[in-house]
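Q: What would this chain look like folded?
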Amino acid sequence: MTNKISHTGIIETIKDECITVRILQTSACAACKVAGHCSAAESKEKVVEVRDKRAAGRYKEGDSVVVAMSAQNGREAVLIAFAIPLVLMLVVLIVMRWLTENEGLIALVAVLSLVPYYLAVYLFRRKLAGRFAFVIEN
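A: My prediction, written as structure tokens:
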């Protein structure tokens, strides 16, 4: 098992220290020869930003590069984006079920419990962006 997540992409723009790279994220079967005939194959285009102080002299728009992030950071990002909110919502569902029988209210409070969580993630986005940053490999 590798300890990094990497994708090949094309540099779209370079502005000061910020490089915008378009990557094609594919599922495991998307690279299969018959993927065009199969509904299970899936791929998505993503745009990631990479901070590199030497960007202007090193790269140019249209260059093919490999962007990478440590697998540990990838797991932490999934935890923050999906696992913690799921656990939070389940806890709120259980507590609300214990407090009331009104299923509509239970569902509403459970969904609304995610608002402060994602607001906190939004407020700390700069700190998180520095922690979950991609780098360009050579």
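The mean pLDDT is 84.
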